[in-house]
Automatic annotation (TrEMBL):
<protein>
    <recommendedName>
        <fullName>Lipoprotein</fullName>
    </recommendedName>
</protein>
Length: 182
């Protein structure tokens, strides 16, 4: 059961730990070549939504104390929600990409972050109010929530969304601050 819980929570955990951004100055990487506006913007995005976010702490799930297990999962979902909110705020702070063709994708990315955060919040609220006294009641509560989170299990975060633009994908690949972003 512990593996199922952790797998379900890991599937909905997005953000800094998944984006792979390393931080950096967004400059030319020492090449002597001036970075274009898309590369500079991509570096800012990686710094804003990647490297500076706190790493998520997986909850310790005590297989003998189901009430504490539920509380740990609710706390973890709260951490995910906070990180998603921070990512959305930081991405808004960076602003839209410099190329107009990617602006709708940027807007869609912001909406997807907000929608995911809303689903995480709903899941946490529902789980928090569930009456859990034993393994069966915890399993029942978690199984009921799986339907909410299933559609978000493959979400890789805003950088992956923004890479759908060929121009931005190239910019992320060229931005020193984004090395390691998949």
């Amino acid at each position: 059961m512990r593996r199922w819980i952790l797998a379900a929570l890991t599937a909905c955990a997005v953000g800094g730990s998944l984006t792979g951004c390393s931080g950096g100055d967004g400059g030319d990487g020492g090449s002597g070549t001036k970075a274009g506006p898309e590369v500079t913007w991509a570096s800012s995005v990686c710094s804003a939504v990647g490297g500076k976010n706190a790493q998520l702490q997986m909850p310790a799930v005590d297989s003998k104390n189901y009430v504490k297990a539920k509380e740990g999962i609710v706390t973890f979902l709260g951490q995910i929600s906070t990180q998603l909110s921070t990512m959305e705020t930081n991405l808004r702070g960076v602003g839209a990409p410099p190329n107009a063709e990617a602006k709708p994708l940027y807007d869609t990315t912001l909406t997807r972050i907000a929608t995911t955060r809303t689903a995480v919040d709903k899941t946490a609220t529902t789980l928090k109010s569930a009456k859990v006294t034993d393994k069966v009641s915890l399993t029942t509560a978690l199984t009921g929530l799986a339907g909410i989170m299933t559609k978000y299990q493959d979400y890789q975060g805003p950088i992956a969304d923004l890479k759908a633009s060929p121009t931005l994908s190239t910019a992320f690949a060229s931005a020193p601050a984004c090395s390691g972003v998949s």
